[in-house]
C-alpha cells in the first residue's frame, strides 16, 4: 500500500505521527541554546611564551624561532606565524579545516617537551590556547574603586569571581589590568658591597627563613604530638628583622642593607574606566552553553553579589554580547513571522479558500519544526544562520503542498469524492513532486560538503533547507491528502457573487493576468528572434554593469562597540602615553555623545595575559573600548562615529597612528593586508612606508597600519670576553647577576589569608636609573672578589624594533588598510596597481592577503559549489525527462537570475559579499523549479497530440498561477529579510536582496524565454514528426 493511500485510510495514525513530531520539535526549541553564530572551532592553536625583560629581538631569536622550528613537523599544519614582542612570544599554528584540534594540541605539547631545554633560563613554560567561539568573552565589565583599589583583585576574587564561577554554563571569569600586591626588597648596592653580600645571598636567606618545616613526632604521656618549626612570616614587616649576615661579629639585618616595601607591583599597564582608575572583568561561557542564558544568570547573580562589595567599588557593563544576540534573533524571528504571514496571504489570494489555505499553511510549521529537532540532535544552536535558513525555506515548503492540493481540488471539481480525489490526485503528482524536491536538494545539500570558512559558516544552512524541504514533501504526500479528504468538499456555485467577493476581485484579476500572458506568449512565439536577441542584450548589459559592483567578504555589523588603538612614538614613556589617552578621552566625550562608557588601557601587559592575545600592548600604545547606545537610540552608526573621531585624532601631534575595529573579535576582519617578506629590517620597513604612503592616497582607504612599529631606544651590555675569562666569568653568569639586580629575584612567597604574594629582591630604583648606575653594578667573581660591570664591559644605547613578525618562518612586515565607503575588492585592486609599479628589491616578496584573500578563497569555493549544483540539477532533470535537450532549455533561465542579482545589488547599493553570493548560488534550485513546472506541462500537452504552439500556449496559461504562486511565496518570504533594519540585519539583508532580485527578474524572463526556447529547440522535432506522418500517408496511397 502506498504511503499516501495509507495516510488517507488511517487519518488518526497520520495525525499522531505529525503530533509526535510537533511535540519533539517544541521540546527541542525549549532546550536549544541561543547564539549569534554557530559555534566555530577555528583551525588554529596559539602558543604563548612569556620571557620577562627580554627585547623583541631576544624573543625572536631565543623563543619564537626555537618554537617555530620545533612545530614545523606537526601533522596537517597549514601555516605558521609568530609575533615577537617585548617580554612575549605569540606563535600561531593554523591547520587544515576539519583537523582534530585535540590531537593537534597533543602533538604540539609533545613537540614543546622536546624543545623545552632549548628555551632560555627565566623563560616561563609555553601556554597553549585552542581557539573556538566560546573562548570569546560574552560579558565585559568595568570595575572602578577608590580607597579599595589596592586590594581590588582580592575583593573581586572572593566576593564576585568565585561565586560566579559556580554558576551553571560559565567557563571562567577573569580580570585584566588588576593591581597585584607584591613585597619589594629594595637593596642599597653601596651597603651591600660594604658588607660583601650579593642579591643571591639575601634571596637565599629570605627563602630559608620563610618556611614551616615538619620536624617529626614527639610522644608525651598518652599523646603523640607532631613537631613543626614555624618560620613563615605572618607580617611583611617581619622581613626587616631577618639577619642576612654578620660583620665584625655583629649581625647584619635586612633593614641595614635594604628597604622592605609592601605595595602594588610595578606595571607598565594603566587601566581607567570613564577617566577613573579601574580594571576590566570578563566572563567566558562553557563550550555549547546558551550565551543568552549565561548572560542572564550572570547579571542576576551579580546584582546580588554587588551588595557585598565596599561602597566605593562600582561595576558597569562595557559589552554584553547577549543584548546583540537577543536583538538579532528577535528581529529575525519577527522577520520569520512576517514571512509566514505573507506566504499564507499569497496562498489564500491564489486559492481563494480558507480550508485549502489552512491545509497548505499547516505544512509550514511542521516542516520548520523538524529543523529545530535537527539542531537539537546535532548539538547546534538557534542563531542568525539557522533562522535565516528557515526564512529561505519558508517560501519553498508550501510548493509541494500547493501542487498536490491543486490537483486534488481539480478532481473534486470533477465530482470525485474527497477521499477518492485525495488518493488519485496524489498518485498522479507524487513522483513529479519528489523529483522537483530533488532539484532543490541538489543545490542545498552540496553546501554541507563545502570546506573552509564558507562550509563552517553555512553548512547549517544546507542541512536545514534540505531537511525542511524533504519534510515538506513528505507532508505534502501524506498530511495534505489526509486533511483534504476530511476538510475539502465541492463548493456550490453562487448565483450572484457579491461585489467584493473573491470571484469579483482576486479571481477576476488573475483571469485578466492569464489572458494577458496568453497574448504575450502568442506574440513572443511569432517574434522569437526579437525575444532571444533582447534577452541576450539584457544579460550582456547586466554583466557589463557587474563591473561596477563592489565585492566584500562578510557583512559588517553595528554591535554598538568601538575599539580604538592609538600608537605614539616608539619608546614613549607610559606616563606620557597616559596623558595623551586622557586627552583622547575628553575628545570622545565631547565629539561622540553616543558613547556611554570608555575603558582605557595604556601601556604594556608584561604578564602575557588573556587580553594580550587579542590586542597589542606597549608603553606607547593606547587601547580604548567604547560602549555605545543601541543603534535604535542614536542617529549615527559606529562607522560614522569613528569617522568623526578620525578628524580629531589627526590633529593630535603625538599620535603617529591609529585604527578602529567594530566587531566582537570572532567575526571576519575587513582589511586588505599587504605582506612584505624579507630579512633586512631597513629594506622591508622602507618598502612598507612607501606602500603605506601610496595607499593613503587612495580614496576610501582608512586606518592604514604598519604592523612593525618604529624602532625604540634600548640598552645593551657589551661584554669584553677577554676580561670575562680573566675573572673566570661567563656571559651567562654575568647576565643572570645583572637580571637579578635590575629585574629582581623572586626569593619566596609571602602567604596571607590563603593568598600568596611574591617577595622580590632587587636594586632600589634610584640605583638603576642611568647608564652610569648600570655600569656600576657589582659583579662577584668565582674567587669572591667584587668588580664593577664597567670593568668587564660597557652599556650602550641602540635602536631596536618593538615587535618582529614571522610568517611561514620568514620575517614579514604587514601593511593593513580598512575600506571606508568603498568595497574590499575595489580597494584591493587599486592597491595591487600601486604595488605593480614598485621596483621591488632582490630577496623581497610582496603578497596581498587578509580578508581579501579569504574573500577570494570563499568565492572560489562558491564557484565550485555552483558547478556541482548545476551538474546535479542537470542529472536530476535529465533523468526526469529522459532527455538531454529539456534540461538545457530549463537551465537557460539560470543566467538571468544572476542578471537579476546584479541589478538588485546595484539598485540597493549593496556590495557582492559572501552572503549575497551564496544567495545567488541558491537561486539555481529555486529558478529551475519554476521552469520545470512550465516545461513538464508543455510536454504533457504535446503527448496529448497538441500542436507545438498550442501546447506552449495552453501550458503557459495553465501553469502561470502555480509558477507565480511559488515565486511569490519565496519572494515575500524573503522580503522581510531584505528590508529589515534592526540589530544584526546587516548579516542577512544581502541574501534577501540577492534572492529577491534574481527571482523577480528570472521569473519574468523565464515565463517568456523558456517557451520561446522550447519552440526553437522543438521545431525540428515537430518537422520530423510531420515528415514521418506524410511518408506514412504516401505509402498508404501507393498501397
Count of individual helical segments:
31
Shape: elongated
How many β-strand stretches? 30
State Rg.
37 Å
* CATH-defined superfamily of the largest domain: Multidrug efflux transporter AcrB transmembrane domain
Domain count: 5
N-to-C terminal Cα separation, in Å? 51 Å
Structural class comes to: alpha+beta
CATH level 3 topology of the largest domain: Multidrug efflux transporter AcrB transmembrane fold
Mean pLDDT equals 85
Helical residues, percent: 40-55%
Main sheet properties: 9 strands, antiparallel
CATH architecture of the largest domain: Up-down Bundle
Which strand-content bin applies to the residues? 15-25%
CATH class placement of the largest domain: Mainly Alpha
Low-confidence parts: 1035-1039
Organism: Prolixibacter denitrificans
Protein name: HAE1 family hydrophobic/amphiphilic exporter-1
Keywords: Membrane, Transmembrane, Transmembrane helix
GO cellular component, one term: plasma membrane
Structure, described:
InterPro entries: AcrB_DN_DC_subdom, Acrflvin-R. With 1039 residues, the chain is α+β, with helices and mostly antiparallel strands. It has 5 domains: 171 residues, Up-down Bundle (Multidrug efflux transporter AcrB transmembrane fold), CATH 1.20.1640.10; 91 residues, Alpha-Beta Plaits; 172 residues, Multidrug efflux transporter AcrB TolC docking domain, DN and DC subdomains (2-Layer Sandwich), CATH 3.30.2090.10; 197 residues, Up-down Bundle (Multidrug efflux transporter AcrB transmembrane fold); 177 residues, 2-Layer Sandwich (Alpha-Beta Plaits), CATH 3.30.70.1430. The protein is built from 31 helices and 30 strands. The strands form 7 sheets. Strands 1, 2, 3, 4, 20, 21, 28, 29 and 30 form a 9-stranded antiparallel β-sheet that branches. Helix 11 runs antiparallel to helix 16, helix 18 runs antiparallel to helix 31 and helix 19 crosses helix 20. It is elongated and about 125 Å long. It starts with a helix and ends with a helix. The C terminus is likely disordered.
Amino acid at each position: 500500500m502506498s504511503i499516501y493511500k495509507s495516510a488517507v485510510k488511517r487519518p488518526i495514525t497520520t495525525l499522531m505521527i505529525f503530533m509526535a513530531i510537533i511535540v519533539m520539535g517544541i521540546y527541542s526549541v525549549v532546550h536549544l541554546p541561543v547564539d549569534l553564530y554557530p559555534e566555530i572551532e577555528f583551525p588554529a592553536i596559539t602558543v604563548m611564551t612569556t620571557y620577562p625583560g627580554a627585547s623583541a629581538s631576544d624573543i625572536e631569536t631565543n623563543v619564537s624561532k626555537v618554537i617555530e622550528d620545533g612545530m614545523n613537523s606537526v601533522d596537517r599544519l597549514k601555516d605558521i606565524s609568530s609575533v615577537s614582542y617585548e617580554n612575549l612570544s605569540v606563535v600561531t599554528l593554523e591547520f587544515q579545516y576539519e583537523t582534530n584540534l585535540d590531537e593537534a594540541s597533543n602533538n604540539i605539547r609533545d613537540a614543546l617537551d622536546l624543545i623545552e631545554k632549548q628555551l632560555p633560563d627565566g623563560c616561563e613554560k609555553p601556554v597553549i590556547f585552542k581557539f573556538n567561539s566560546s573562548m570569546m568573552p560574552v560579558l565585559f565589565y568595568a570595575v572602578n574603586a577608590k580607597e579599595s583599589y589596592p586590594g581590588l583583585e582580592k575583593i573581586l576574587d572572593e566576593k564576585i569571581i568565585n561565586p560566579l564561577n559556580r554558576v551553571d554554563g560559565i567557563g571562567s571569569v577573569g580580570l585584566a589590568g588588576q593591581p597585584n600586591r607584591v613585597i619589594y626588597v629594595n637593596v642599597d648596592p653601596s651597603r651591600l658591597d660594604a658588607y660583601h653580600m650579593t642579591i643571591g645571598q639575601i634571596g637565599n636567606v629570605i627563602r630559608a627563613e620563610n618556611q614551616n618545616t615538619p620536624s617529626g613526632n614527639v610522644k608525651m604521656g598518652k599523646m603523640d604530638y607532631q613537631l613543626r618549626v614555624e618560620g613563615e612570616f605572618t607580617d611583611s614587616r617581619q622581613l626587616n628583622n631577618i639577619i642576612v649576615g654578620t660583620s665584625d661579629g655583629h649581625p647584619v639585618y635586612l633593614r641595614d642593607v635594604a628597604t622592605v616595601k609592601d605595595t602594588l607591583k610595578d606595571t607598565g599597564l594603566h587601566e581607567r574606566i570613564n577617566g577613573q582608575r579601574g580594571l576590566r572583568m570578563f566572563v567566558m561561557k562553557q563550550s555549547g552553553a546558551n550565551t543568552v542564558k549565561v548572560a542572564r544568570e550572570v547579571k542576576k547573580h551579580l546584582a546580588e553579589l554587588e551588595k557585598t562589595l565596599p561602597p566605593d567599588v562600582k561595576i558597569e557593563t562595557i559589552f554584553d554580547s547577549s543584548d546583540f544576540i537577543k536583538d538579532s534573533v528577535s528581529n529575525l524571528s519577527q522577520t520569520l513571522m512576517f514571512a509566514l504571514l505573507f506566504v499564507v496571504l499569497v496562498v489564500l489570494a491564489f486559492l481563494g479558500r480558507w480550508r485549502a489555505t489552512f491545509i497548505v499553511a499547516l505544512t509550514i510549521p511542521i516542516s520548520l519544526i523538524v529543523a529545530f529537532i535537527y539542531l537539537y540532535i546535532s548539538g547546534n544552536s538557534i542563531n542568525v544562520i539557522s533562522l535565516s535558513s528557515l526564512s529561505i525555506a519558508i517560501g519553498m515548503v508550501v510548493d509541494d503542498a500547493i501542487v498536490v492540493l491543486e490537483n486534488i481540488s481539480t478532481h473534486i471539481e470533477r465530482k470525485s469524492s474527497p477521499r477518492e480525489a485525495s488518493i488519485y490526485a496524489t498518485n498522479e503528482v507524487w513522483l513529479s513532486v519528489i523529483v522537483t524536491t530533488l532539484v532543490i536538494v541538489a543545490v542545498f545539500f552540496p553546501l554541507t560538503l563545502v570546506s573552509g570558512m564558507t562550509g563552517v559558516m553555512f553548512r547549517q544552512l544546507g542541512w536545514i533547507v534540505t531537511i525542511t524541504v524533504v519534510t515538506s514533501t513528505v507532508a505534502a504526500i501524506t498530511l495534505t491528502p489526509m486533511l483534504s479528504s476530511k476538510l475539502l468538499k465541492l463548493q456550490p456555485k453562487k448565483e450572484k457573487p457579491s461585489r467584493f467577493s473573491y470571484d469579483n476581485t482576486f479571481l477576476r484579476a488573475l483571469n485578466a493576468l492569464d489572458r494577458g500572458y496568453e497574448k504575450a506568449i502568442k506574440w513572443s512565439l511569432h517574434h522569437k528572434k526579437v525575444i532571444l536577441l533582447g534577452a541576450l542584450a539584457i544579460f550582456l548589459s547586466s554583466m557589463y554593469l557587474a563591473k561596477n559592483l563592489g565585492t566584500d567578504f562578510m557583512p559588517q555589523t553595528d554591535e554598538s562597540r568601538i575599539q580604538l588603538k592609538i600608537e605614539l612614538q616608539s619608546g614613549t614613556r607610559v606616563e606620557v602615553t597616559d596623558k595623551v589617552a586622557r586627552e583622547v578621552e575628553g575628545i570622545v566625550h565631547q565629539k561622540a555623545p553616543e558613547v556611554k562608557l570608555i575603558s582605557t588601557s595604556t601601556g604594556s601587559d608584561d604578564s602575557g595575559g588573556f587580553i594580550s592575545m587579542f590586542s597589542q600592548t606597549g608603553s606607547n600604545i593606547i587601547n580604548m573600548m567604547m560602549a555605545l547606545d543601541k543603534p535604535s537610540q542614536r542617529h549615527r552608526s559606529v562607522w560614522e562615529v569613528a569617522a568623526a573621531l578620525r578628524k580629531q585624532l589627526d590633529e593630535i601631534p603625538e599620535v603617529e597612528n591609529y585604527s578602529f575595529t567594530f566587531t566582537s573579535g570572532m567575526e571576519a576582519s575587513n582589511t586588505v593586508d599587504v605582506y612584505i617578506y624579507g630579512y633586512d629590517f631597513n629594506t622591508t620597513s622602507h618598502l612598507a612606508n612607501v606602500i603605506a604612503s601610496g595607499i593613503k592616497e587612495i580614496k576610501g582607504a582608512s586606518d592604514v597600519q604598519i604592523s612593525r612599529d618604529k624602532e625604540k631606544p634600548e640598552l645593551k651590555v657589551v661584554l669584553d670576553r677577554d676580561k670575562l675569562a680573566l675573572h673566570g666569568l661567563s656571559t651567562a653568569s654575568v647576565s643572570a647577576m645583572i637580571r637579578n639586580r635590575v629585574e629582581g629575584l623572586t626569593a619566596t612567597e609571602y602567604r596571607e589569608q590563603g593568598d600568596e604574594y611574591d617577595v622580590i629582591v632587587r636594586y632600589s630604583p634610584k640605583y638603576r636609573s642611568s647608564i652610569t648606575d648600570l655600569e656600576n653594578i657589582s659583579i662577584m667573581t668565582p674567587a669572591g672578589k667584587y668588580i664593577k660591570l664597567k670593568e668587564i664591559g660597557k652599556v650602550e644605547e641602540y635602536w631596536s624594533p618593538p615587535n618582529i613578525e614571522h610568517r611561514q618562518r620568514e620575517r614579514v612586515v604587514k601593511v593593513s588598510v580598512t575600506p571606508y565607503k568603498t568595497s574590499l575588492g575595489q580597494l584591493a585592486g587599486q592597491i595591487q596597481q600601486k604595488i605593480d609599479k614598485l621596483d621591488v628589491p632582490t630577496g623581497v616578496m610582496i603578497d596581498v592577503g587578509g580578508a581579501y584573500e579569504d574573500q577570494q578563497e570563499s568565492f572560489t569555493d562558491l564557484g565550485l559549489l555552483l558547478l556541482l549544483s548545476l551538474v546535479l540539477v542537470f542529472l536530476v532533470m535529465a533523468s526526469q525527462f529522459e532527455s538531454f535537450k529539456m534540461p538545457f532549455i530549463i537551465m537557460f533561465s539560470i543566467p538571468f537570475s544572476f542578471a537579476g542579482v546584479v541589478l538588485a545589488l546595484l539598485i540597493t547599493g549593496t556590495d557582492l559579499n559572501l552572503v549575497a553570493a551564496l544567495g545567488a548560488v541558491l537561486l539555481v534550485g529555486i529558478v529551475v523549479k519554476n521552469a520545470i513546472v512550465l516545461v513538464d506541462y508543455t510536454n504533457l500537452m504535446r503527448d496529448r497530440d497538441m500542436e507545438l504552439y498550442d501546447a506552449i500556449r495552453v501550458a503557459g496559461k495553465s501553469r502561470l498561477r502555480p509558477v507565480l504562486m511559488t515565486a511569490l511565496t519565496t519572494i515575500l518570504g524573503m522580503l522581510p529579510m531584505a528590508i529589515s533594519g534592526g540589530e544584526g540585519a546587516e548579516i542577512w539583508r544581502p541574501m534577501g536582496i540577492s534572492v529577491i532580485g534574481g527571482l523577480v527578474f528570472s521569473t519574468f524572463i523565464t515565463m517568456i524565454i523558456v517557451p520561446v526556447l522550447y519552440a526553437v529547440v522543438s521545431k525540428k522535432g515537430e518537422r520530423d514528426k510531420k515528415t514521418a506522418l506524410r511518408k506514412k500517408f504516401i505509402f498508404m496511397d501507393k498501397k
